[in-house]
Amino acid sequence: PKALVDLHGDIRELILLRLGAYDQVIEGWRVEQENSFVEAEPLYDEAEDKLEEASLLAVAINGELEQVDVALAEVGGYGPVA
After folding, report:
1. Which of 27, 44, 56, 78 is within CB 3.0–4.6 Å of 82 for a Cys-Cys bond?
2. Do 25 and 45 meet the contact criterion of CB atoms below 8 Å apart?
3. pTM as predicted
4. What is the 8-class DSSP label of residue 78?
């Protein structure tokens, strides 16, 4: 539904943030094995930042999903908590 377009966009962003963080960790591991932890550390730091951003977004998404559940319950639909 059109009303959920923003929610779906947020979920997509969450997934992309996590995938990007995992890619950073993989690249960091490669750099660490070939060179040193010191050279890889910035990649790990970026990954941590992305995961933190994703976690904050997940909390916001959870709040939006709770509102969807309430709206479904009000119209007699069934949500995951119904």
Report:
1. 78
2. no
3. 0.81
4. -
